[in-house]
Design a protein that fits this description.
10 strands; 571 residues; 24 helices; alpha/beta
Amino acid sequence: MVGGVGVGVGVGPVVAVVDEGGLGKRFWIKARNHTAAVLYSPFFVSLASGHLLPETFRHCISQDVHFLRAYAQAYEMAENCADDDEDKSAIRSLRKRVLEKLKAHPTLVQEWGFELPDESIPISATVKFTDFLLAAASGRIEGEKVPGKIATPFERTKIAAYTLAALGPCMRLYAYISSEIQALLKPDDSNHLYKKWIDSHSSQNFEASALQIEEMLDKLSISLTGEELEVIEKLYHQAMKLEVDFFSTLPISQKTVVPLARVHDPAEHHLTIFCDFDLTCTAFDSSAILAEMAIITAPKADSDVSETRLARMSSADLRNSWGALSAQYTEEFEQCVDSMMDGKRAEIFDYEGLHKALEQVAEFEKRANTRVIESGVLKGLNLEDMKRAGQRLILQDGCRSFFQKIVKNDTLNTDVHVLSYCWCGDLIRSAFSSGDLDELKVHSNELTYEESVTTGGIDKKVESPMEKLQGFNEILNNCNSKGKQLTVYIGGAVGDLLCLLQADVGIVFGSSSSLRKLGDHFGVSFVPLFSGLVKKQRELVEDGSGNWKGLSGILYTVSSWAEIHAFILGS
């Protein structure tokens, strides 16, 4: 548990500086909640499986003509606003591509193997987007004061930039979605019903168009003020949200595997979500937070602490002790993982072998906790200080909002349990209390106190993978009266492996090399979640299965809470 503590804990984390590129790329990165919502939508999961009902697809692409007309009109307005001849020419070429695609749309659809309906009426979500786009191209921005007559070149260029910001996400989103799906297809898979559509939208030409819009946005925005750039970003994200709304409102009349919480009837199924805390919910290990608190609040080396009832080490001694504990933990943990893989790699999933091997982790974690108690580094911490630290704890992006949406939705028959090795349950509870998440049930170790000050001891409740699994099973046994059980476990550490595998859906968050290495040695398969969902959707349609089942030896990997949110709750 002390592996997250470093000798330099007092100076804070070192953050690498990453070049995120231009405006379009930066906005795209920040919009990953929206992109995950579209990728994991019933429409695209079904399309990727090759089993989206043709009438649903036809309904969707029948809306393209309305979008394309609005794009062409918006580009024309942007071209008229652009001040530079080179910019005008670039925007004109973008408009020309749209007009060509609009003209060729019926033929393209036939090449994809479909026929358009005789008449296409824009649906509400389409109208909302096209109205928004043309309003931006006219300079009618909510909260933005634009002169009745756009007279100066600067004002006109600004409106052109606004238009490109509203257009940018559309092409980039399609390029991204189709590329993600393309990566799942076999090169010679000509039987996939939507392969030609996927090929078209993942082509180099399509990517070039998306890139050209982003480059044009960068150029038009170069002289804008900070406030105007904020408007640009707002327009980009509003356009993305309207795209999400479009795909989430498309009528899907077939059974799908997403979103998990809605495809299972809450009246019959009880969904229990389990989650680890450190580095799954949090950006930093909680032991590092406790170390920081201990060092900051410790007396100086020359202070007289002999009269205090709970005498503490000096801050310098504490820093050295934490550093030594951390280094020893890291070294011995790596040795422990290596020793568990001494034998031959399993050809098939070997749960019993993994369970037995993890007994070494249990012994290791208990020895490490005993060293922490004996060292006295957790002595003298104030309970209220810890609660305040918990409230300021940085959680992973999207984690808090995911749990908030669950607990505030009365229609979901769902419980959430946090199962953690963390030494301090109060830290976890306070971290979630700041988001009105008191309903989350926390199962962890607890620090021991005398009059709200820690004694240095730990009330040990969850120290090993086996104790996590025991807690997991006990919770489920208490939920049996709530209906058929469906379980999801979210975690990313070696200590989570048994629970991840026992759950109906085990979601591996992050990129722990130790977990991957150990799981692989015992025959565990790690599958990207989207890929796994596409396979489940295919099974659901082809043979009526597609059910989630624990102890399958398959774990699903994600890199963000946005993916978890989209999979379980949808948009």
